[in-house]
Amino acid sequence: MASDRALVFPGLVPLTRGELTAVLDTRDELLELAEGTSGFAAQDLDVTDGHARLSSTVHESLLAVALLRRVAAEGRRWTAYGGMSAGCVPSLLAAGVITEETCFRLIRDINETQIAAKAARPNGITLALLPSSEGDAERLVEVLATADDKPWLSVDLGAGLIALAFRGDDAEALTRRLGALGTAVLDRIDRAEHCPWALPGPDVFAELLAGADFRPATAAVVSPLTGKRVDDTPEAYRRMLTEQWFDTASLPRLVDGLCAVDSVTAVDLVGPAKSVYVPRVRAMTAGRADHRLLTIAG
After folding, report:
1. What is the pTM of this model?
2. What is the chain's pLDDT, residue by residue, as a tens digit (298 residues)?
């Protein structure tokens, strides 16, 4: 069914025990494909603490299963698609650019390569932050730029909620410094992401994507890096997937870009009901487009 709506796929949001259980309790081709590609068995996974005991490869694979099931349940196609960070790969599947097999293979290859690169050469950390105001978020990188850690605005979710990548990995010292600036640390990732020193380097990403089959899209795809529609060529999709790992991923730019696609009058989000993305997308579309949440099971 045709639509005048655009759809956002979130990044690697935390999944609760209930959400993971809902994914694993339904045996279908998507789950079997995720298992076979990433080499795990659903019955062996420990989801007692939600995603906490899962590798990023398994976590991202199961999130993709949940998101894609929910999209399929709608029985519609959207006019435009966009994904934040890890959401870029399933957004390409939804837009008809890649197959299910390619989707889960890319999730596996990208995550396993990142895990290996981090083990071989630590490159810093990424901290999710909530400054005391949106204006403080805009000034924070500049204020910290004199520090040895050289922060980079890694992710911008709007309304002041950001993530910064740091070259250093002393989270306690950074938390104290940020606290003195009125900034709360919400979460920590043990590698620097969406920054120029992210690992592995662009050449390795290019090699991972070289063998992937990218097909003509059935809908527009918008980049979280530029906020612009991606050219409908294999080279452009490979470039988008690579470059967004080395610069700021921006939900405001993504939503702006989706709203700018011809005939789009609403921006939907697929994800957990309690995801931090929900109020952000709702706020960004207020007064200019409708919004709807496609809640995953759990």
Report:
1. 0.94
2. 456 999 999 999 999 999 999 999 999 999 999 999 999 999 999 999 999 999 999 999 999 999 999 999 999 999 999 999 999 999 999 999 999 999 999 999 999 999 999 889 889 999 999 998 888 888 888 888 776 777 999 999 998 999 999 998 899 999 999 999 999 999 999 999 999 999 999 999 999 999 899 999 999 999 999 999 999 999 999 999 999 999 999 999 999 999 999 989 999 999 999 999 999 999 999 998 999 999 999 9
Among 262, 247, 232, 252, smallest CA distance to 95 is for 232
